Amino acid sequence: MAFDFSTAVKKNLPAPSAAPWSGFPTYNFVGGHNDPGSLPVDKLTRACSDVLSREGKTLATYSLESGPQGYLPLREFLVGKLKKYSGIDCTTDQILLNSGSLQAIDLINEALLAPKDTVIIEKSNYGGVISRLNRLNVNTVAIDVDQHGMRTDQLATTLDQLADRGIKPAYIYSIPTVHNPTGSIMSLERREHLIRLAVEYSIPVFEDECYADLIWDGKRPPALYALNNSQVVHVGSFSKTIAPALRVGYTVADWSLIGQLLSLKTDAGSGALEQMLLAEYCREHFDEHLASLNVNLKTKLDTLCDAIDREFGTSAEYTLPPGGIFLWVKLPETVDTARLATVAEKQSVAINPGCEWSLEENANQYLRLCFANPDVDTIEAGVAKLAEICHREFGVPVYAGNTPQ
Ligand SMILES: Cc1ncc(COP(=O)(O)O)c(C=O)c1O
């Protein structure tokens, strides 16, 4: 009889995966996948071949003769990119390359959090952060987020109340530039307010900017790190701008944190080939790639919004995001999106229910749709199918004749 490892594993681990992966659903609106049509496969192939023929022998060493912070030419590229797109002044010594920004998040959490600590986050948030914080057994204090980002007036009151109770948060985590899931961009005024509060209460700020380069008109305020480069740790990624499968992200921080993260990063270096090919490709092509990716993503967003308006009518509400890959949709209170997701999944329509992306009381009215991966025909057909399932389950949208109301 086969040994059952479930009898041997530690207690209190996250629930195991129910089954091996069995393929993507036909209508895939979940996760943060990218647009396959925008992937510059030919140029990436050439970049890979060029860099390997020139420097391939450095693969014989751990860390490619660049040290544990990662491939130096990619860090050099990032110094220029961060200045140009996010207003950040930094040096290559302030950058640590990671295996996706998720590794950065894990390392920062390991360095800064202990069980029972308190952290401040935005109320609607990245599911990967909510689940990590739950697992780490820390207390989360959630602040509302609107079209202009985290409500810093509420943050001020909250910090004051926590201080009265003798509680000093371990960090303030924010996704200020193209927030996940709402898509909002925090105003400059609120950024400055947030930094002032962080300095006043001496609390580290954890800035996660993985969608920041996906803004249709390119307009955005400087990063929080650009406003304070000693108290902010900034995390970014190539997942959304180039490809998530490459698993390359980065941390920008003062050496007092980078040095500590290095001691916790025990993987002997993140994947080298990915870093080499990204540096080679991005040096020449990043700007032009980003411009065309944003055009393609905007077309998909427009298609999604048209389909939602057509299929759900006034039952669906959303704020048009200025960039990114997600639409955050609110349905009437009679709809439970967790149940909708379960029923839809059986019919090959995958959506993220609001309860996994928000601590709002009415989170179950929300759903998050990623529009980057499906093509425009699939977006249209998928939304029509979702509306049909939602109508059958919840009577929403209400159909009068053939049109939704
Ligand atoms: C806000 C946010 N941070 C971090 C990540 C992790 O991205 P990656 O590890 O692919 O860089 C995601 C992924 O969707 C995200 O939405």
Brief rundown of the structure:
This protein is of the alpha/beta class and 405 residues long. 40% of the residues lie in helices and 14% in strands. The chain folds into two domains: 25-39 and 288-404, Aspartate Aminotransferase, domain 1, CATH 3.90.1150; 41-285, Type I PLP-dependent aspartate aminotransferase-like (Major domain) (Aspartate Aminotransferase, domain 2), CATH 3.40.640.
What is the number of helical segments per DSSP (H or I, 4+ residues)? Answer: 11
The order of strands across the largest sheet is 2-10-9-8-7-3-4
CATH topology of the largest domain: Aspartate Aminotransferase, domain 2
What is the name of the CATH superfamily of the largest domain?
A: Type I PLP-dependent aspartate aminotransferase-like (Major domain)
Q: What is the structural class?
A: alpha/beta
Name the hetero compounds present.
pyridoxal-5'-phosphate
Main β-sheet: number of strands, strand sense, barrel status?
7 strands, mixed
**Mean residue pLDDT:** 96
The value of Rg in angstroms is 22 Å
Gap between N and C termini, in Å?
58 Å
Structural shape: globular
Q: Which architecture of the largest domain does the CATH hierarchy give at level 2?
A: 3-Layer(aba) Sandwich
Q: SSE string, helix = H, strand = E?
A: EHHEHEHEEEHEHEHEEHHEHEEEHEE
Residue fraction in strands: 5-15%
CATH class of the largest domain: Alpha Beta
Low-confidence stretches: none
